[in-house]
Each structure stands twice: as C-alpha cells, then as structure tokens.
Amino acid sequence: MKSSNPRISLYKEAMSLETKRAILQHQLDEVHKRLNSIRSKLFGQELKSTITKTAQRISAGGRAIKGTLKTQILEALEAAGKAGMQVRDLAENLGAKLPNVHAWFQSVGKKIPTLKKIGRGHYRLHGSVEKVNQTAKTKKTGTKGKQRGKRGALAANILKALEDAGSPGLKVQDLADSLNIPPKNLFIWFSTTGKKNKTIKKVGEAHYRV
C-alpha cells in the first residue's frame, strides 16, 4: 500500500537518488582510472617523471613558492602532449589545491597564448615550456623598446601587420601579441596617431584593418 505521508515518499526518493549517485560516482572513478592508465601508456615515463619532480618540489617546500606553480603546470601539460590534462588531475598529481590551480588558469594561464582550453576544465599546451619562457622574457626585455625606438617604427610595424592580415583585419589584443607590445600602448596609438592615418579603418570594437 502506497504511503500517504509525503515526507516518507521524499525520504524514499532521496534514498533512491543517493543510490544512483553512488553508482555514477563509482563509474566516474573508473573513467578517471582508465584515463590515467591511457595517459601513462601514451606518454610513458616522461609524464610520470615530470609529475613526480614537481610534486617533490611542493612537498619539500610545504607549498609552491612564487613562480613554481606555473612551471609545474606547464611542464606537466608539455609532457601530456596533445591529449592535455584535466585541472582536477593536474591538482591531484602536483599535490596542489584544486581551487588554486583553477585560479591560475583563470589569471596567469589566460596570458599564455599557447595554452589552449580544449574542454571543460581541460587544457593543453601548444609548443614547449621553453618557448613560453622565451616569449615572456622577450616581453620584459628591451625588444619592445627597440620596436618603438626609431621614430615611425611602431607605425610601420602596425601597418605591416594590418596589411598582412588583409580584409579581416586584426583585433588590438592579437596585434599586441604578434608585436610583443602591451595592448594599452596600441589603444593609445590608435586613438591618437592612428586616427590621422586615413588608410586605417575601424571595423569593430578594438578591431582595425587597412
């Protein structure tokens, strides 16, 4: 006989859902185990070695010191190759807190052009860690200054990049990345010097072409 008490019905439904949740969680755990097994076979000892070393660095210091989390994440992603890695797996394998790794991808990670999001909480690195470091170093050195050093050099570089882009043009952020120039400098240039050049057309928000 079916109970007329709504609370009992709700309890029964909750128990049923909890059973289903436990089954799904078990299945999810099995999927993670299988993925880790596949990655291990795909990338051999290279990924394992990288993860072990980075985890040891954290353990030795009690927590990641400034700058090391970036290196650890990038090294693990480089070793993982095209398959990339889930943020959850990175945090677990590096011994880092999951929220910290998520925060890193949302802040520092967004500034690395070769770091691509390929799924929900899933990233991969195009290229090498060395290339990332070289790009960062270039942005901090006088390379930007050399491009702006000669009078008119900045304008020439911008115009050439826009000409090469053709009719689609370029967004300021993409232009800044290709020229290793801070975006704010280009915004200032387009709003001042660039306005005087009649060949430059604004085709959208922070989007120009010649």
Structural overview:
With 210 residues, this protein is mostly helical. It has two domains: 6-135, Winged helix-like DNA-binding domain superfamily/Winged helix DNA-binding domain (Arc Repressor Mutant, subunit A, Orthogonal Bundle), CATH 1.10.10.10; 142-209, Arc Repressor Mutant, subunit A, CATH 1.10.10. It contains nine helices and six strands, in the order ααβααββαααβααββ. The strands form two sheets. A three-stranded antiparallel sheet has the order 1-3-2. Helix 1 (6-61) packs across helix 2 and helix 3 (87-94) crosses helix 4.
Poorly predicted regions: 58-66, 143-149
Spatial sequence of strands, sheet with the most strands: 1-3-2
Helical segment tally?
A: 9
Query: Within the CATH hierarchy, at the fold level, what is the topology of the largest domain?
Result: Arc Repressor Mutant, subunit A
Structural class: mainly alpha
Order of helices and strands: HHEHHEEHHHEHHEE
From the spread of the alpha carbons, the general shape counts as: elongated
| CATH class identity of the largest domain | Mainly Alpha
Largest sheet, in brief, is: 3 strands, antiparallel
